[in-house]
Specification:
homodimer, alpha/beta, Rossmann fold, Dihydrodipicolinate Reductase, domain 2, 9-stranded mixed beta sheet, 9 helices
Amino acid sequence: MKLAIIGSYGHLPVVLEGLKQAPDVQLVAAARWGQDDSMGFVGTAAPADLPVHDDYRAMLDEVRPDLAAVFVPFYRLAEAAMAAAESGCQIFMEKPLATTLEDLARLRAAVDRAGVQVAACLTCRGDAAFRTIRQAVLAGRIGRCIYAAAQKSYPFNVRDEFYRTRQTYGGTISWIGIHAIDYIHYCTGQDYRRVAAIASNQAHPSRPGMEDQGGLLLELSGGGAVVINFDYLRPWGKHKRPWGDDRLRIAGTEGIIETKDSASAVELMTPDATETLPLAPAVNIFADFAAALAGGTQPLLTTEESFRATEIALKARQAQDSGRFVEL
Amino acid sequence: MKLAIIGSYGHLPVVLEGLKQAPDVQLVAAARWGQDDSMGFVGTAAPADLPVHDDYRAMLDEVRPDLAAVFVPFYRLAEAAMAAAESGCQIFMEKPLATTLEDLARLRAAVDRAGVQVAACLTCRGDAAFRTIRQAVLAGRIGRCIYAAAQKSYPFNVRDEFYRTRQTYGGTISWIGIHAIDYIHYCTGQDYRRVAAIASNQAHPSRPGMEDQGGLLLELSGGGAVVINFDYLRPWGKHKRPWGDDRLRIAGTEGIIETKDSASAVELMTPDATETLPLAPAVNIFADFAAALAGGTQPLLTTEESFRATEIALKARQAQDSGRFVEL
């Protein structure tokens, strides 16, 4: 498969790292998302002679890639992915798939017309901790999942200019809350019925459209409550600590399973024991997607799930704005 | 001060333990809340010759105590506390103060008419971890509090019959969620603006009115989000572990502080360091209330706060039932 990269923003390193495990994929071209695109990976993680285009549409027409990796600023993701779909590309892209429900519907239509697959870069699915939890849940270790609590916490640190407004950033629910929305679904196997949300910017006036903390309250499709808290308040400075502090706790009818120490370990509690589980191997979700395309198998994250996670995040944002539960 | 005990349900041991540190208080009488009341403390934690009455109203008339400790099943708390107030007693009582907003208003009026003080048995305020967090927050260690996440988790284990229905039990928000509502207020110094809630019984059909898990989403009075998750799903059996797993994490503009290991430790994160704080000494909140009455000082938990925590819990239950945010 010929791979073309559109934009070098965000989690493109997931693709560049995954390429090492994707023998069927050849990186053949890249295109800047705009004049500001550094394309810093060319000459470091990719050969210095990689053809780099200024216009991704022209690149798609010229190169005709089989697979596009779309990593542009969030408000332009849907537009670039639609162009890739219209060119017949399979698509691996930054999440969220779109920053408005209207753009999401347009992308969905384009993807359906083209008959291509889309995988959002919801990296947590590939993390050892969440894979371990999913395996334990599937093995019945905690019975039926009936309740979950999750956290996403990051430092504010330095943020790009386009995080300044809702219009260009999309909101913190769709940028970081979406991971928890997705990994709870991934680990429990359940969808959601409804959502309420509160989020605001309290301490970072340089990026007024960027909520620096918030919470989600959701109902699982099987019944039961989910709470998610997310923030950009993780202290950052001379004391070195992991970038993020992801957490997940799922209670079932027979036990409780949860991450420990910023998702570096997983603990299972049952009436008989408290045990630290051996971690499942981590998976690079780009390599997984490429392998699934090559083998005709199902990827770790399906097209449906990529759209659904984005839809839920954008409806949660509606709930935040309206102060009401939104049905899912 | 003469103390009379009304009922031996719930957290009465907090009073019996606190008496050892309350030299101004003499336990002079007790009354059963009903025929089923075991009064097991008489002859063990209290003298075997303690006068025990069958009717608390008659006991109040006869003994004229200065202070009443009210520990009856939840749906009868307001009624018994009203009788104590009308008798002119200061009141230390099980939480919630009432299981309906109507009863809460009636109790409020009785307390105001009598000019007495009421302290709810919100024990977490006296716990070392929450006192440590409050002290650190008051000392400015995390800046302005703008976000919190809390957990209350208990085993279902064995529950009394009156937990079966909402009418007699009151609901899990008002029985265990109320602690987190209160200790977030205690630690942040902030009130709340609005609340949404989801809770249900998923796995304990023997007590259909007793929600076995749920979540609250609140907005702090100063802005910022709070999520609380609570459950009765903590595994309980031959593996011994602490009864509860209380948690609290507060983020401020300058750092994050949180409990570790079922609130047996407190960790503070700032840009410069991650440190485990020395724990403040625990306080018995009954002994504290008695000392405040004797000294004319402010107790750890005021009458206003006792009523407010109950009001918020009951309004959160309204939010649960209506599927809407309720203003606070």
